């Protein structure tokens, strides 16, 4: 039987008796009230609330992708939720300005009471990192112990299980690998064949040849500039060469230089190049949102590092870490979707793009066609 | 005996067992889980946490000003705390973007379960409005009942007591009235006298006379423009006239057009005009911060109104109010420090400013003088 | 023959010799240099540059829609460009903080030299308003003269021509009217018929009946609350009633209460309700972006008004207008896409939505179907 | 004779005939119009306009400080102008979101036409860096050539001259060195002596002793944690030790680890610790604003680097530089006021602060004292 509807008051709905009763100042407890400790507590609680929401949204997207076939509608929903995460992250970065109103001198009034509590002990933040795809082995360590050592056994179990399962990164990789457009022929069983990688390769080679000739012919640039440009072109050539060679790709993965599989990379490239085709529009936006989230996480780490430098200088953080250096390094090293960022390196101008056969274009459009 | 220091863990310090256990979705309870209800709850909880911090800061500033003589240092502290409030308010406005990610259609999935809960039932927000100086009689009503009718008796008592006591507005007014610089002679007992209002009046009259002549003489403007400008000047004249006349000022207060007393207004004007004198620098910044806070509250109401329009259209809000119209009207009518904004109308260019006698300037400087 | 490529330097490419040589301070010219006049000039130049970009993007979107059949791909492009406009608008609002660093007293140092120059004389801003769809008759007047009176004849001609042609509003209305899904049968010539308006009407009636019963049955609410809710329900009923009646809609348009035609309104409603169908996803996002732009323009006007109040108080603006009141009124009255906002009023929960026949759903999906 | 006032129109005042006529698209010139090139041009022009304003404000502050004795009032003015710069920088960071609306693929449509134009050729940006205090030797090089090689001889001369003169950093250092409060006795010729460094040293030593004892006595922490904390304390001890030793400070400067002189560092420390004294309030805020500006420049470089990564991937930038790596490195290495940030490391809690003798406190207050 359905539960009967009932009235509810704002306070009770939001459980404000819990929320607003959770600020117990240690400085008060120890007899030396520090006005700014209230902000310190509230700001961290706000962060934890937002982390809860981000995890709520991210998990739901992972559920939508944790299937053999992602429904068309669900890509739209995934985009909306990732967009929400990005908007929350924007606020997370901006509100660092608020915590900076606690000046270093004011912070010293209560800093000693907090030891060794530290943002390093935020379980939800670790949950978020792991869910996105940060692997234990890629973590920058800032103490000798495992990052999960500060958590309860139950929490460690949750993290372990998360690490074992598919992360957002893994799910995206699998989804990209499944996308059937790398070889249209096999995909749609039409007579007309179109092998993306080989067509793309031809275009790249032609483009590079033309560029080389253009530089050679250019009499408006000096010899030294000509030399520089040809050198750059050579590097580009080498770079593209490594792309067409699956073995080289595999080697890069082994060496930790890349993470995304060859097939997934090719699919991501195809989506970026042919994003204007109706069926690829949403997948393209989905990939963009992943990059947004990665970028905003990097921004947050950078901004966080600056705040720590400003408040603590070179001092050791409340968790026994030299916060600034740690945070600065994670900003670079803890990226998840770096390979998606780097797709840009592989793009070629639309004018050089292999044209899709008409029949294939049709397949990428809607059933309903306006006349 | 002093309490002995002890270790504390992040989770316990922030009481995350309360904070993260306070999201109970009504849509889940009623058997129709709506993904977005989580955000709806968390966002409101975040708002309430920030309200708590704002009240914490505002109350502390009110305490600093609730004395016969505000210590010099405390003006600096007050500025810092008001600045923090303003920074928080900026985030309150910006994060409306986040709630707008709940689309109207998604909101309908759980809206019915919330009735009649409504932001109108936020006790802390009322506390904040009353503390700033919003009077019961100046409130826009949006139902027939008193705004406090939705609160418990205990909460109503707190609001009543707050309304009886001095608000931030009252404390600022009293502080301005006490400032001893309107008549320097009586203030510092020096032989040299300087009556601000009469000197200022002379300057204004001279300035207006000159402007009139300039317009008359200007042969680069058309007759119709000349006419328009002289008309504007006449209005300015009338306006300034009403300033110098304490009775007219009183009348405006009675008619609800102004709120700030004559003496306080004159002091605020003096602070604005001579803000570069060292002793007036901080008071000037303090007044600016009050305006910032007022402006940001207005921005928040405007933005909030737009969000309601977008989500609900003309529909009645969850609290039985037509939210959009109510919020839009309060944005204009619930300003507290409008008279401080309006000081701008009274300013005259520095070049026209009565010069302070040297001895007085000295008095407004520091004891320690570099040679 | 194709033009030969050539080298170019940053300075020359950006024509910095023009851009950075266009700040001539009147206060310097008149012998009383005012430091802040530089900011005043530069800030307005920055606004004009952004206006140029907004017009560039908006015009291109209008071109894409100024055809009998909008290509699928072009909706995606339109969304990107409107999104860019929205991002620029966000900056336009935020950077008002910069101009507020010119304090009222500092502004007086050079204000007199500017007369009667005024933002009211910005041709590009008028161009933008007209392009969006602001009609001459709906303009709030702030002087007795026509808004275009301050422009050269050539500029007036451009505005007149723009007013005569189709605005963005007109193009959107026509596009919505053309959308073939209000009656699927006629649209796709299938045997299965689905008339949106009548199906939707049935759902609404059923929903309202159920809601009435639920209130009647609710024994957890007081009689007075029951009464209030039933009254609200009655109003909703009346409101929906007016929707289903095309004549009433026409009357509202005549009375200036609405602008969007009946058919276009129904299409916009359909798009909002069935936005999860692949073919409607992009149209839905397109409509959202129009609302974003409208909202941000309102935010800008509101924020602008506050800035004027703060800087000038009740003083007359540099253009002879009482800027604050004018701007505040336009924020409400110069909205273009108010009717799109108001679609929210018509939405019903997904659970009450008439289900689309399977064959129709197919038609709204892609040709290519994964197995 | 004074120049006679005259009317002026908005367009003419802003020289819009120059500003709006400076967008010449290369892609149009070469016959392949690319819609997004307009944004690319306008955005860079907007940046250059803001750079002009920042330089205008910064130079004026440098002028105020380029004297033997900085007037009290001018510190207030300097704060306002630095605050304005910070507000502009905030927008410079935020508007990177706008340029990111040019997707990598769209950028390729016109990228080839721009070679070798590059932000590296922005003269104003170099001017700004040099004015703040970036030395030629501390620059990260990104080509083999001198950073100034891309400029005209005239521009190089200006940069050279700027480099030879006092930068903002130099002026601040000299001002800090002149501040007379390190030794109050000599400063004010009073009988009461107060030597800041020695008093501060005593407090630090006492504090560290107490902290050591507290850790020893703490039976709520494990032995390993005790060990860790004592080790941290030892490092702090060493660090402070190096502070009290002017020779060690000099050595750090020689090794490039620090830049600010010993005396200036001590003054900055004093200002931070006793910032609540009226006469030190403004100097404190001034130092804060310098840190703000440094931080925002770092934020801008970080954000800029991310944008380049996203748009170009690992590709070489339009200026022949590998933009991403270069920008990321400058974010860390081109800081100017790092030593001011790092003052935080030296702060001790207010409760441990040596108390100022009453007579000295008086000297730091205003002449005018309320009774």
How large is the share of residues in beta strands of chain A?
under 5%
Oligomer: homotetramer
Mean pLDDT across all residues of chain A, rounded? 88
Helix-strand pattern of chain A: HHHHHHHHHHHHHHHHHHH
Give a short account of the largest sheet of chain A.
Answer: none
The coarse overall form of chain A would be: globular
Q: Indicate the structural class of chain A.
A: mainly alpha
Strand tally of chain A, please?
0
Helicity level of chain A:
55-70%
Largest interface, C-beta within 8 A: A-B, 68 and 68 residues
> Uncertain regions of chain A: pLDDT < 50 for 5+ in a row?
none
Q: End-to-end distance of chain A, in Å?
A: 51 Å
Treating each run of at least 4 consecutive H or I residues as one helix, how many helices of chain A?
19
Radius of gyration of chain A: 26 Å
Can you describe this structure?
The structure is a homotetramer of 371-residue chains. Chain A is mainly α and 371 residues long. Chain A has 19 helices and no strands. Chain A has helices at 10-13, 16-19, 26-29, 37-65, 72-94, 96-99, 104-114, 123-132, 153-164, 168-178, 184-188, 196-217, 223-244, 246-254, 262-273, 278-312, 323-333, 338-341, 358-363. The longest helix of chain A is centred in the C-terminal third of the chain and has 35 residues, at 278-312. The first copy, chain A, is globular. The model of chain A has no long low-confidence stretch (mean pLDDT 88).
């Amino acid at each position: 039987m359905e539960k009967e509807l009932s009235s509810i008051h704002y306070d009770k709905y939001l459980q404000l008796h819990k929320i607003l009763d959770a600020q117990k100042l240690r400085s008060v407890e120890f007899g030396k009230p520090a006005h700014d400790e209230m902000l310190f507590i509230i700001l961290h609680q706000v962060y934890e609330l937002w982390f809860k929401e981000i995890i709520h949204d991210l998990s739901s997207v992972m559920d939508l992708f944790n299937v053999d076939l992602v429904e068309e509608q669900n890509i739209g929903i995934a985009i909306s939720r990732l967009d929400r995460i990005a908007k929350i992250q924007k606020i997370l970065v901006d509100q660092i300005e608020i915590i900076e109103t606690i000046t270093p001198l004011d912070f010293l009034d209560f800093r000693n009471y907090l030891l060794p509590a530290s943002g390093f002990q935020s379980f939800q933040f670790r949950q978020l990192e792991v869910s996105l795809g940060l692997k234990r082995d890629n973590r920058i360590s800032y103490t000798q112990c495992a990052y999960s050592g500060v958590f309860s056994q139950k929490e460690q179990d949750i993290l372990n299980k998360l690490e074992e399962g598919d992360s957002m990164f893994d799910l995206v990789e699998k989804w990209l690998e499944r996308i059937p457009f790398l070889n249209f022929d096999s995909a749609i069983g039409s007579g007309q064949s179109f092998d993306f990688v080989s067509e793309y390769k031809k275009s790249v080679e032609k483009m590079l040849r033309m560029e080389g000739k253009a530089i050679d012919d250019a009499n408006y640039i000096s010899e030294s500039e000509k030399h520089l440009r040809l050198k750059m072109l050579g590097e580009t050539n080498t770079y593209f060469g490594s792309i067409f060679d699956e073995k080289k790709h595999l080697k890069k993965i082994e060496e930790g230089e890349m993470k995304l599989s060859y097939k997934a990379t090719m699919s991501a490239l195809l989506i970026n190049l042919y994003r204007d085709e109706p069926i690829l529009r949403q997948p393209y936006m989905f990939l963009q949102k992943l990059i947004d989230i990665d970028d905003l996480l990097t921004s947050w780490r950078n901004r966080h590092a600056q705040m720590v430098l400003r408040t603590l200088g070179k001092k050791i953080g409340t968790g026994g870490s030299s916060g600034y250096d740690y945070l600065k390094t994670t900003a670079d090293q803890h990226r998840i979707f770096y390979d998606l960022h780097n797709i840009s390196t592989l793009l070629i101008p639309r004018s050089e793009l292999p044209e899709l056969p008409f029949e294939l274009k049709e397949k990428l459009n809607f059933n309903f066609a306006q006349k």
